[in-house]
């Protein structure tokens, strides 16, 4: 319920812009000295972000991800996405945005907040706002009226700031037309590609030349440093098997985190797609729209079978045989126009044609699954697993810390091993790029190992699935090899480099002769590939050259049809000729103009935020992010 209340109070555009601009903060230098403010996860120009607010936002983000993955996240997935930093930077962004609004004189009084609350359907009884229902719902979500109204006031303030900045955005009337003309311009190419692999048999591997080349490139063959370890590894899973969680503790955790188990409203829909391919002409688009309207009339007829019509007419091969069934999905999972339509419909209703980037859709809403809270029985096992992990982590750390203290008392890891039940393991020599078999598969383990000096003992290292204590038993420094030791690899590398040089020369020679004749002059037996008409955004596919070639070709002046030099894409060289051009002619519509305006507003807001951050003082309490 809380998510629904907050969504009604927030601007979707604000949320999307915050997600875009949050990237800026990743590259900002921030301090870590918080002057004793231990309960603040960050301070932005003296405004604190409380740790509890951060935790609440983090848990909401994790729960949203968990719902997308059917209730369970893959191990380490949240860490790979950097969700902690994403949540924190989003909160920093919001504070800075609001501070900028305060400086601009933007305020939100109590009246707009009261008006917004009065408009929320969740607080109505018999069609009228109920103060008692308002208090009851907030209490159920562990909120006071003061805290809820403060959050709502903050959201409204953010929305007003965004609107103020957006009002300065300007897009000329013909901008959409110019953009479409640019985007829809098409060219037809003929091209020849030169791959080094085709020239390898032409490379002469004279031993004197190979030896000279090796001396020049010898540092590239320097061996990596290697280490031999003795180590203790304390697996968290060992403790997890022993931990028992009481039923009362499970229920208490469920009550404490009930907001995490809220399920947003979901809708079950079917659709019939009339696909409009990229680059299709206006005539093709109109024909598809007309076909959609004809099938819509069939679908709205009495006793019509929408699923059967989807099997017959839909161009969506992924669900055509299932009658266009899209299953249940929450808001925001589909493309915006489709999503907005579905969430404005009633069960049994059919709408269309709805145009998206894929073409035209006919949509039937089958059912609505209301917002709900997952029951204790549904989440009991996941809560138990989480509590087991938490308790096991603590127990594992205590075991590792106790072992470390015993090593210190014993005076060495070897002496400790003679009197302890914990097994000290030994590795072979290994490099950081090629770890030895049996080592914990965690980058932190390798990072810690290669920071040690010979004979040095690490501290207790926290790993993804436990803790470790490492001892550098021996180190092998990097060495420069003799040619005979790496001869085979050197010859292969030498051949590859020389073949690439031959390919580049062949491309340059072909282009020189082609420019002289003013047309592509391919030698007999050379493969010349000709494309259909391509747009700038053409996806990779059969006969479509790499994006570097298309980008170069579209930069050519209209009077030119050959490039100034061959185009390199990875290790392949291309020589092309523009055979034909077609200017972009599609007519811009109001929707396109709105999209350009929204983009200009985002760019303007990003620039404004950049000016604010130039003088911002942002401090982060890193200890609370671990």
**Alpha-beta content class:** alpha+beta
Please name the CATH architecture of the largest domain.
Orthogonal Bundle
Predict the CATH topology of the largest domain: Triger factor/SurA peptide-binding fold
User: What's the number of helices?
Assistant: 21
Oligomer: single chain
Give the topology.
Blueprint: H1 2-9, H2 12-26, E1 40-44, E2 47-50, H3 51-68, H4 77-81, H5 83-103, H6 110-118, E3 124-125, E4 128-129, H7 131-140, H8 145-166, H9 175-183, E5 186-194, H10 207-217, E6 226-235, H11 236-240, H12 247-256, E7 262-263, E8 266-275, H13 282-299, H14 306-313, E9 325-330, H15 336-342, E10 350-356, E11 359-369, E12 372-373, H16 376-410, H17 413-419, E13 425-426, H18 443-449, E14 461-463, E15 466-476, H19 487-517, E16 529-530, H20 547-555, E17 567-569, E18 572-582, H21 590-613, E19 618-620
Antiparallel strand pairs: 1-2, 1-19, 3-4, 5-16, 5-18, 6-13, 6-15, 7-12, 8-9, 8-11, 10-11, 14-15, 17-18
Helix pairs in contact: 2-5, 2-21, 3-5, 5-8, 6-8, 12-16
Description:
This protein is α+β, with helices and mostly antiparallel strands and 626 residues long. It has 4 domains: 2-169 and 604-625, Porin chaperone SurA, peptide-binding domain (Triger factor/SurA peptide-binding fold, Orthogonal Bundle); 185-221 and 485-582, no CATH class; 226-256 and 376-476, Chitinase A, domain 3 (Roll), CATH 3.10.50; 265-370, Chitinase A, domain 3. The chain is built from 21 helices and 19 strands. It has helices spanning 2-9, 12-26, 51-68, 77-81, 83-103, 110-118, 131-140, 145-166, 175-183, 207-217, 236-240, 247-256, 282-299, 306-313, 336-342, 376-410, 413-419, 443-449, 487-517, 547-555, 590-613, and strands at residues 40-44, 47-50, 124-125, 128-129, 186-194, 226-235, 262-263, 266-275, 325-330, 350-356, 359-369, 372-373, 425-426, 461-463, 466-476, 529-530, 567-569, 572-582, 618-620. Strands 16-5-18-17 form a 4-stranded antiparallel beta sheet. A 4-stranded antiparallel beta sheet has the order 13-6-15-14. A hairpin with a 2-residue loop joins strand 3 and strand 4 (128-129). Helix 2 (12-26) crosses helix 21, helix 6 (110-118) packs across helix 8 and helix 12 packs across helix 16 (376-410).
């Amino acid at each position: 319920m809380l998510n629904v209340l907050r969504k009604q109070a927030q601007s979707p555009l604000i949320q999307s812009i915050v997600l875009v601009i949050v990237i800026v903060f990743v590259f900002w230098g921030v301090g870590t000295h918080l002057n004793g403010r231990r309960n603040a996860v960050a301070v932005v120009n003296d405004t604190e972000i409380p740790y509890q607010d951060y935790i609440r936002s983090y848990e909401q983000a994790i729960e949203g991800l968990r719902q997308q993955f059917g209730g369970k996240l893959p191990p380490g997935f949240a860490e790979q996405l950097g969700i902690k930093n994403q949540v924190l930077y989003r909160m920093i962004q919001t504070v800075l945005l609001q501070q900028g609004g305060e400086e601009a004189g933007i305020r939100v009084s109590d009246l707009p907040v009261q008006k917004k609350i009065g408009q929320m359907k969740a607080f109505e009884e018999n069609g009228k706002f109920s103060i008692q229902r308002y208090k009851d719902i907030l209490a159920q979500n562990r909120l006071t009226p003061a805290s809820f109204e403060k959050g709502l006031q903050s959201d409204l303030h953010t929305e007003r700031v965004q609107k103020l900045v957006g009002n300065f955005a300007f897009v000329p009337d013909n901008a959409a037309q110019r953009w479409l003309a640019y985007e829809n311009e098409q060219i037809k190419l003929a091209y020849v590609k030169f791959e080094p692999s085709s020239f390898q048999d032409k490379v002469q591997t004279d031993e004197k030349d190979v030896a000279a080349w090796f001396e020049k490139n010898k540092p590239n063959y320097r061996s990596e440093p290697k280490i031999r370890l003795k180590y203790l590894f304390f697996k968290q899973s060992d403790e997890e098997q022993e931990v028992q969680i009481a039923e009362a503790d499970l229920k208490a955790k469920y009550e404490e985190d009930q907001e995490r188990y809220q399920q947003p409203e979901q809708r079950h829909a079917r659709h019939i797609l009339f696909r409009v391919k990229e680059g299709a002409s206006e005539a093709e688009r109109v024909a598809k729209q007309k076909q959609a309207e004809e099938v819509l009339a069939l679908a709205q007829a009495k006793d019509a079978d929408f699923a059967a019509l989807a099997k017959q007419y839909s161009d969506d091969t992924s669900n055509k045989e299932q009658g266009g069934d899209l299953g249940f999905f929450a808001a925001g999972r589909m493309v915006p126009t489709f999503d907005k339509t579905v969430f404005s419909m009633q069960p049994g209703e059919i709408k269309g044609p709805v145009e998206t980037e894929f073409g035209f859709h006919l949509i039937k809403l089958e059912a609505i699954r209301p917002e709900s809270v997952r029951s204790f029985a549904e989440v009991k096992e996941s809560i138990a697993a989480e509590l087991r992990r938490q308790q096991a982590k603590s127990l594992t750390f205590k075991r590792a810390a106790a072992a470390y203290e015993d090593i210190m008392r014993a005076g060495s890891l070897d002496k400790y091993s003679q009197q302890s039940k914990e097994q000290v393991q030994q590795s072979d020599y290994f490099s950081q790029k090629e770890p030895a078999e049996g080592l914990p598969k965690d980058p932190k383990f390798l990072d810690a190992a290669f920071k040690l000096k010979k004979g040095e003992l690490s501290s207790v290292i926290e790993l993804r699935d436990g803790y470790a204590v490492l001892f550098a038993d021996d180190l092998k420094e990097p060495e420069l090899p003799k040619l005979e030791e790496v001869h085979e690899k050197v010859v292969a590398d030498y051949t590859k480099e020389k073949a690439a040089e031959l390919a580049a020369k062949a491309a340059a020679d072909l282009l020189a002769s082609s420019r002289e004749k003013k047309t592509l002059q391919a030698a007999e037996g050379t493969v010349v590939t000709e494309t259909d008409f391509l747009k700038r955004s053409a996806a990779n596919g059969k006969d479509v050259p790499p994006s570097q070639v298309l980008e170069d070709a579209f930069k050519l002046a209209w009077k030119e049809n050959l490039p100034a030099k061959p185009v390199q894409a990875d290790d392949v060289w291309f020589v092309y000729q523009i055979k034909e051009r077609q200017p972009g002619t599609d007519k811009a519509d109001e929707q396109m103009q709105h999209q350009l305006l929204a983009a200009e507003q985002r760019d303007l807001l990003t620039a404004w935020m950049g000016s604010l951050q130039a003088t911002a003082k942002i401090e982060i309490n890193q200890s609370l992010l671990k």
